[in-house]
Amino acid sequence: MALVTLKEGTPAHRAYVIGAWAIAAIVLIYVIFAYRWGFAPGSIDKAFRLTQINDVICYAVAILGLNLVIGFSGQLSLGHSAFVGLGAYTTIILVADHHWSYLATVPVSAALCFVIGLVVGLPALRIRGLYLAVVTLSVAYVFPTLVVKYDSLTGGPNGKKPARDTGKMNPPSWMPFSNAGRLASPLWVYCILLVIATALFLLVRNFMKSRPGRALLAVRDNQTSAAVSGINLPLYKALTFGASAAIGGIAGSMLMINRPFASDVQFGLPLAIFLVVGLVAGGAGTISGAIPGALIYVFVPYFMSAWTTDQRGMPPGIKQVTKPLFDWLQGRQGAGSIAGVFFGVGLLIFVFVLPGGFIDGIRRLRSKIVQVIPNPSWLRELHGSANPPPTSHSPSSGGEVTPAAPVVAAVRTRVAKPVSVKKAINLRGKTT
Amino acid sequence: MRPTRWKKSVVLGVGAAFVIASCGSSTKGGSTATTVAAGTATTAGTGAATTAAATSAATTGGTSAATAAATTTGGTAAGTAGGATEGLVNGVYKGIGDFSIDPKKCPADWNDKQGITDKEIDLFVSLPKSGPLAGFGLLADGASSYFKYINDNGGIGGRNIVLDAKDDAYKPDQTKTNVDEALGAKKYAAFMTVLGTANNLAVWDTTNDECMPHLLNGTGAAQWGDVKGHPWTTGMQLDYFTEASLWAKWLVKEHPEAKTVAELTFNNDFGKSYSAGFKYSTKGTGLSVVHQELHEGTAPNLTNQFTTLAATKADVVLLETTGAFCTQAMSEIEKNTTWKPIVIMSGTCGSVAQFFKPLVDQGLTGANTYIIQNFKDVNDPANASDPFIQLYQKTMTAQGLDPKQTTYATGWIYAWFMTEILKDAAGYQGGLTRGNIMLAARSIQETNPLLIAGLTSKMDGMKDAYLTEGGRMAKYTVTDPKALGRFVPSSDLINLEGQLGTYDTVKAAAAGG
Amino acid sequence: MATTQSVNESIGKGYAALGRLGQKRMISIGVLIAVLVAFSIIVAVQHGFTLFLQRIFDGLSNGFIYAAMAMALVLIYKATTVVNFAQGEMAMFGTFIAYVFGHSLGIPTPLAIILAMLASALGAAGIERVLIRPFDPRNHLAVTIVTLGLFLILNSLAGVIWAYDNRAFPSPFPGRNRSFSVLGANLEWANLFTWLTVLAAVLLVSLLLSRTKIGLAFRSVSNSLESSELLGIHIGRTLQFGWALAAAVGTLAGTMIARTTLLEPNFMGRVLIYSFAAATLGGLDSLGGAVVAGIVIGLVQTMSGGYIGFIGSDLAPTVALVVIVAVLLVRPSGLFGSKRVERV
């Protein structure tokens, strides 16, 4: 049972929602000023760490785009890395060869990826399920090959970057941190990326709450029923691919704004697979799941690799436990690969413990503290009073699209139903 | 759901911020944008290619161990170290060969003594420790083992050399991340032996802008001779373009009857460098390339390619590839009973243990394959009495490492150069500083004891930007088909010391041809 | 709006036409064969019949390699309707075990391979019991993530244990490195035996599935999970059998492949994409289809790479993948896959 119970629509609930968003905003803005105020957890006053945080923002957008296709429309697309790469290369080629400004290239890469996404989505109208997965996997596989083949345009295996002394994003002088020396550029990039990412997240969130968004969920849950109900299947499926590709392309451009260097190995099969992993780890079918997914993608391999190469950086408890392992590994060729083993084991543990993803875990935690009784505005109007009809509790705050697990992705209706979280996750239970 | 007013204004506000941001941000003025992929005199690239000298170290030298260069690492090497004339003079670093460094051109927070204390000198390397090229990760272990030997014997004026390594899995973007982190940490005096052409190309602009000595790159690309544009970056290996020229010279001299040449080329700059070098050097000779087969790093095997190449019935075949592909290529050629060309292979495939042993396990031999060698093979019994190799074996065994692992020996080659650089720098005016380290790196006169006899390793500032500039053709000779063979010298030593100039010369040669 | 409606209509018409094309099997097959024959004649006349035959042999060799692994993928799919990303790495691990048996313990190669197949079957059964069974078989995404995690673990573990040096995997067949001549083209004995082994494996597995009780259970489960549950078939054990069988076939395939590719932890990764393609092209639930599709892909690669100049060997894989998409557009369930009926 939760500690606090809130009814939607009451001032207390409003305060809770606004408070939560305010805390998030404060944290995000604190990053900008951390270097001035001395207190910088996780060394966010270092340019390197800021660049990593910017990476997280980029990959969160990439996973958001992937979510549109996998989480919200139920098509298994493993080729997202090709669109991220396409967007990245569009940006870097325009900036390096034609001296565009970075931000001007973002709409171009979005448009280009949208068109290509539509083209790729056309076979998806006819090919379904795992056949589609393999076809999209091939797209992800072919993209680096094409990059290498057309190396006069893309720089081939050597990669592409802007000419020396160009291609750096510097803040305008009226920004408070423009005199922060080496931190100025990463902080400015952070601001820009945050603005773009926030816009995209809000866009997708509002879209999913709207009628077309619900149509998409209907397509995911049962295509035939959706078609029978009058939803225009080819339109939705193709446009979803296009939109997802466009968002992926924007993510690629954002990556280039942060680190202006593109090479073929960056955007190949491993990225496609890890984006899916990040998606599921964050929480498929959730919008906010993209953020933990991106955090996992950027930081877990980094720390695994760092600790494998140099055990000094490890937290003390883990260090003692793994000492015999690292002693045995000393001097072995391929010892660095142990990082991959840790990552894979972590992934397995994760899937067992939190099959709904990180966000699901957060929500369960939150439901123990705060519990919101839905009382949406239209229901209030219907009943003409502030009292909601009697319902049993439901563990999540109203308004978000929340399939708790990929399998039972029931569209949450506005009338609360007694669905407990355990049943929804369906860990080998006999219930639906 | 009626979108509330405040939501609309948030959206407008975000959009406005976006527009303001794009107008407000500035990028520094751009000159002509040059893409990283160079023109014809191209460089080695990624894929699954290995570009390090790791495997070329296991090539046999063969002859007399009484090389003048095989001195112990006590430091008194042949040739002059930088005398007291080099160093910090009136605020500018002056070296030999007109090379100079003006610290005012470096960033305002550049610290000449960064990474150098009374107790320690901190060095950094980024190389693959996981993934398919993880074998090269042992380079760092080998280099560290040499540094440990030096540290146990007094270090550099009492300072210990410490090498920090980070894994980049051979991915250029990961190398860039690692280098950015290392630069930001403000902890290191110099970088050494960063592996991979694409990897080094991804970072060399940054290291030069930051005035970070970026020394002894672990690849054979010709770019590292660009002393004008990138004075802080140096290489070590014989570059692939020149290696292919040595092939051409050898063919013209020793096999004038050969006319047609077939090429198997790794589809990246590594393979294409060889191809360009060969094409350049065979102008005006009777040799002509009749067919070139490209292959990807992801190719499972080379059967298709060799069917096509065998159909050409060429006199010579060039294996411009590396890694497992060398073994596969040799095996395809040997299994073909009708086509018997002269086989010349990239020097990166010289490790007998790594690339010829799988052939023996398959019942083949790889006999009569030719490669260019410039370093001695520590496992060759003919070199057993070489004093430096004996030191190597003794030290490795004492430290609990396997001396037969030739990648460790390659680490020793790089570490030896680094140590000489540090020693020289300590003797310059101004003492051991990063500027002097850079001068010393471009003034090397000593000869590496693991170089085959007759070769020298000299750098001369702006005039000679390449360290290893020679080699000798050797033939893999097999006496017992069930055992491994050895490389036997098959031509005179070609020493091009001082003739390669800088990257400008190489580029002009490639373009002009 | 009118434009979207007309666009929809034209898309619908296009796909309907493709569907009809797929149904007119005889005609489409006939046209295809005519095109291929014409291509072969032109090319053989222009570049020599011997080279043509040699390329056919190369294509077949590569094709059977892809087909061998595709079989394992199809088996897993038939059992669980999940694409097992870890299949390649399990096969790689099994091949390493065979190598260790042969190299360090001195067991003769054919026996080492059989022992490794048994070991990997046992290992796969264990993996299914511990890692897969806790999940609802209908929860595809979770099981896929588990297989991805396995992929990472096995690949990295192999790297740590055996490092990345290339090793030669010995051939279990007689006549090592010897080839015989067929009309001027060279065919290695080992290649011929590989083809025969793969065909024999397909035959044996088909017999196993059609004549034994466990095979019957397997087919029932792959047909309909709910009905099998109602019939009292133990789903878990049947799936376990499926995993074990697939792992054994995978190890066999791996040992065939390692002969030409050389053994190192990433060798399966280079072949796997083609095997996935072969399994998809042939129909994810058709064993014979996997073999046919594998051969098709191998031949397409060799022929297009060899004869069509601008494609060359580096773009040949792309060509193969384009072919697959084209075929799937016409027949969305693969060449021989069973069409799924969607129920509301």
CATH architecture group name of chain C? Orthogonal Bundle
Structural class of chain B: alpha/beta
Distance between the first and last residues' Cα of chain C: 28 Å
CATH topology of the domain at 68-239 and 383-468 in chain B: Rossmann fold
Percentage of residues in helical conformation of chain B = 25-40%
Give a count of the beta strands of chain C, DSSP E runs of length 2 or more: 2
Mean pLDDT of chain B: 81
CATH domain class name of chain C: Mainly Alpha
| Relevant CATH superfamily of the domain at 68-239 and 383-468 in chain B | Response regulator
Q: Number of helical runs of chain C?
A: 13
Beta percentage of chain C is under 5%
Strand residue percentage of chain B: 15-25%
- Please give the count of helices of chain B: 13
Structural class of chain C: mainly alpha
CATH topology descriptor of chain C: ABC transporter involved in vitamin B12 uptake, BtuC
Quick tags:
heterotrimer, A: 432 residues, mainly alpha, ABC transporter involved in vitamin B12 uptake, BtuC, 3 domains, two-stranded parallel ribbon, 17 helices, 3 strands, 2% strand, disordered C terminus, B: 513 residues, alpha/beta, Rossmann fold, eight-stranded mixed β-sheet, five-stranded parallel β-sheet, 13 helices, 15% strand, globular
